[in-house]
Amino acid sequence: MIEQDIAIKSMPKVELHRHLEGCVRIPTIIRTALRHNIKLPTFYEDELSKIAKLSGPMGSLAEVLGMFEIAQSVFVSYGAVEEITRQALEDAHKKENIRLLELRYSPDFMLKGKDLDWQKTLEVILATTRSFQKKYPIFTGVIIIASRSYGMDSVLKTIDFAVQNKSIIAGFDFADDEINYPASLYAGAVKKLHEAGIPLTVHSGEDGKFSQVLDVIKFLNPRRIGHGVKAIEDPSGKTLELIKENGITIESNPYSNYLTRAVERLEDHPLKKFIAADLSVSIGADDPEILDTDLNKEYGLAVDKIGLSMADLAYTNKCALKASFLPPDIKQEAAKWFDQ
Ligand SMILES: [Zn+2]
Fold this sequence. Notes:
binds zinc ion; 16 helices; TIM Barrel; globular; eight-stranded parallel β-sheet
């Protein structure tokens, strides 16, 4: 077991599905809150960990949203954004040996109620990733997220923001409530993204029905799908076929799916079936701080609970590298770390 842990930890990894808002360390939340006079339920690290981190399958969605609100509250200055981004990179690279990292965030969620400019915040995040890349063997990219539950105006504003920044961002994502905000709503809006050549991923099939995944493929034509858990429930198998035919990669996040009850038990997670169906699949940690996970833990669980082999893990990294939204020359450079 220890040997397996060591082997997993030392593997170079690709992470495609990680939210910056889900990467805020507890001590950073407390320190930033004290500095900026932000209210927290408690200023004790142990107690805040219990409130701001999910330790088992969620009781309610409100409970998890409350955790995100605590993390969100400290994106309060450009200095805080810089510190949070740098720590997210440090954790990813030093603890998990991540060599290619796509970090994503929702500007409207992250900066709601804050006195920070969207453009300047993006530039701070990118400057932080660039300076980190100079010091360590890692490549990074930033994905801009539209928060569906914030309504159409917010989605359109976020799309325009992404298009204006198409030369410096890696891609675009739709996240949060899919059930009340179905893919068909955005069929027109995504045209701007496609025309601008911005690669698209969509959170889909995390809850609800497999037909949502079909709708996402039909209306939004993404290159990747976040979670996609429900795709396995199509009795005809057509959803998996379409994912494969369209060359779509599933960004799976097993422990996240267990904590949000997308699967009852990790043993039920469809990751192994996705691989058996010859789909392109990656493994991500989603929100490492809030969900108390990282890729070392995800890989360990994928082997111990879901039945993946070490070769399967290497396969998911190969898929992730191929499906990354970073430019081909960067991916080629990164591939050197994975070819041994
Ligand atoms: Zn996510």
